[in-house]
Design goal:
Layout: E1 6-9, E2 16-24, E3 27-35, E4 38-44, E5 50-56, E6 62-64, E7 67-69, E8 76-83, E9 86-93, E10 98-102, E11 125-128
Antiparallel strand pairs: 1-2, 1-5, 2-3, 3-4, 5-6, 7-8, 7-11, 8-9, 9-10
Length: about 130
Amino acid sequence: MQEIIFRGKGIQSDRWYEGFYAYYGGKSFILEIVDFDITKWHEVKSRTVGQFSGCYDKNGKRIFDGDMLATPDENHKAIVEFHGGQFGIALYDIVGEYKGFYWSHDAMTVTQFEAIGFCSEYEEIIGNIHDEDF
């Protein structure tokens, strides 16, 4: 069973928080479970909230919506996005032009970019769209 976890960047701390998502009083919050009966509410920037894809990269890090994944081709950027009811990879060229959306790397061949399968131990997070210039 997939964990339903969200991540958002704090308003005051600029730190990433993971947990449950809540929208209350016109603000976005990540609810961090600290202990069995203790929950911390962290106000986060709404535009940074992303859901956990259910996948981990080769370093054991959770892959979230908005994460950038390494590609063997320096002319492209791979961004994890949620479309059509599932997570996949949106491919952009180096100047930011959209090249397509793929649910698995099996269908993905753009110039020399051939990767091995979204949600595999070969993926590596190299940043995200909220921390990087994109």
